Amino acid sequence: MNMAAMAEPAATYTKPDSAKGAIGIETVGMTMRFGSFTALDNVSIQVKPGSFHALLGENGAGKSTLVKCIMGFYHATSGNLLIDGFDGDVRDPRDAHAKGLGMVYQHFTLVPALTAAENLVISRADVPAVVNWDSELKDLRAFMDAMPFRVPLTEPVHRLAAGEKQKLEILKQLYLGRGFLILDEPTSVLTPDEADEVLGHVRKLCEAGELSVLMITHKFREVTNYADEFSVLRRGKHVGGGKVSEWGHSDMAAMMMGDAKPAEPASRIETSGAPVLELEGVRARDRSGLGEISIASLSVRSGEIVGIAGISGNGQMELMEILTGQRPTSAGTIKVNGSPYHATRAESRRLKVRYLPEEPLHNACAPRMTVAENIAFRSFEANGADTRFWLAPGEMRRRAEHLVADYKVKTTSIESPITALSGGNVQRAVLARELDGEVDLLVISNPCFGLDFTAVAEIRARIMSARNTGTAVLLMSEDLDEILELSDRVLVMSEGALVYKCIAAQADIPTIGQHMGGHA
Prior knowledge:
Shape: globular
Oligomer: single chain
CATH class of the largest domain: Alpha Beta
Strand order of the largest sheet: 6-7-8-3-9-10
Radius of gyration: 25 Å
CATH superfamily of the largest domain: P-loop containing nucleotide triphosphate hydrolases
Number of helices: 17
């Protein structure tokens, strides 16, 4: 049935019986142990009805464990959850939903081939075996009219922009009658304008008493602009919080880090020189096989960082695959220091090209091999096949110990499998390997995605230091703040092409955001 062709009968939206308005929750002495490891240690936080509460902490601080206990994915070892002052006794996620608790995850959970209306209807527990779409659409349009934002009901989800998908995820929770909502990094796939629009609407719902929100985020700007109160976890303990209006970003960061000190950002030195990386007329198929990656012209000079901003799925991953030799091109040329470049191992060594791909544990490591062995990948045969370096574990260990210490890689042993390291320490280990020795070109993709404050500061400082010593750096990132902090020039990638460029110091964020979203 073609729902788009249906008439739009008027209707009045009535809340489902499960709708409860804004719900307050409180964790009281919540402790969660996994064997001998304590992930949460006597954590007590309160989210008041109608408030917008930010949950802060570095990776491994216990944020995910806490919200999983609230939603019934985990059963706390001890402690209680109170819902509107009464014992919550949440047995599982379905029970949490029945009590008005919902969660919007970092990655979309929608069915791409179905319309927005179909996604909403099938999310109900009482969806009938045969759906009367006339009646359902009438009710859904009335629901949309009562909401502060809307999405096209009859459009397939795969055709929606990222901001519309995130709105639909939130609308789904409201449609199901949730009065308390956990948002897990809700703006990681949105443009700045989309992020402001979505969070602005959510805050209005809180102010209207329709919703209470607990938001996990690493972005202080979002905390300042939208949250009323915040709580900080560190190493599984609740170490502080309060009203956002009474605390500055540096104070929040200090609370998150404790005695740890972030790396100091390297001063920007004017060292720009000759072009190192040059792409001309490069074309390739995208991951779907239906679209095209088309790079008319791109160059990166010695001693500069060129940042490519863009929403996920607009060709950045394919560009990284082209530059690493994992995706064939159908046209165009790639040169490094004036020489044709096809990303062979011999070429990358001779031309001093290094990579830090997204999710390096899966894309740049052998997870079951040791930290020392993974660090040796770049150089074990560098002096010729007859040196038998791979069979010289003593030398391999010495190099690994030096780099682990220099890059502050936290590991129980260099003989531990690299998969045992946290995300930030995997990044540090791979960056140590890739920046060891002379580097003319460094190609990076989302180097700090999902990492905590300390790891982010350390990795960004290393990238800037490489740039200041003359390395040409191509940085692809979905974090616009990261692009603006590190880059000398900014390019925007949308639908497989570079559509905008500017000097970073003169960047206008709304303009960049419009090009990222394809609205310019």
